# Entry
Amino acid sequence: MRPIAISHYSVVNALGRGTMSTLEALRSSHSGLSPCDFMDAEIDTYIGRVDGLEEEQVVARLKEFDCRNNRLAMLGLAADGFESAVASARARYGAHRIGVIIGTSTSGILETELAYRQRDASGRLPPHFNYRTTHENYSVTDFVRRYLRLQGCAFTISTACSSSAKVFASASRMIESGLCDAVVVGGVDSLCMTTLYGFSSLEIVATTPCRPADAERSGISIGEAAGFALLERAETCDNAPCLLGYGESSDAYHMSSPHPEGAGARLAMLRALQRSGVDPAQIDYINLHGTATRANDRAEDIAVSSLFGSETPCSSTKGWTGHTLGAAGITETAIVCLCLREGLLPASLNTVTVDPCFRMHVLLENRNQPVRRAMSNSFGFGGNNVSLILGYPAA
# Structure
């Protein structure tokens, strides 16, 4: 495939607002995870919460979209000069030539949870509740499109934890086919009772900050995040990191468990390598899906080591941000872009002793070295697997 430039990107998560907050935390090994204090959730776990989100409100012209998820989206759009970068692209291409593809797993479901708490004696939901502009999965995409004053094609992808990685594959196809000159991609997922209690019911929520690939790992830490990227043809952008390739697969092994041999994960990585024309030996770093559950990390180790052996440096960054679910793909893509720019390989934070059964090379300390090409993995429920290869085109 032809490289697609990531001409601008932003991210907001538990580490702060903007890429610099994330970069500083990576360099200092400072985690954004803290004991769960979300609303009245009585769960013994750690979460990655965005500070001050409750006090925010969406812009007045879009007040019908006000909910936690769209507030978080707005912070992501305002961070890192992203809104201004899109305005410049809009002036170049025209609003109708810029698409919007956003990934989310639960969108604004918290708004529905709160509405059900406020039902009257007859069971009616409160009159202010608007499912269409808050909870529905397209709500966040519609909000982003309207906020940025764009008029191109727009849709939401909801494939659990791979949602905001799949947006890159879809955007690449739209640009290559001539449907768009540029695409705003992103992911937004906010804390809610559904995910906190849902993952707790699966018995995969850790009582300590998550420890990806650790011999004593015991489950995930849930976080919230928003992130966006502006994708354009590579020839229009100088010195920008690029999407070099993507691979998708659907192993459909189980609704919530990965294929035990990592079959779908391996196929996604293999397809990304083939599409990009990059050999495994040319990948300098792999950002693992790395949720810190027993089954996921084991399956990913099998898949990664079968293609890359034991030499390619790998790590999961969920020890910093928590697992941001539908926003994990964009969050970790932004982190990989920072790695490319800064020559930084982050360690797997909180990991003390790598599972002795693992063959992949998990970093326990940060490493500084040039990074030319990197892979980012996102594997979702139901076997929705995506691998992205990011880097700089060959000279």
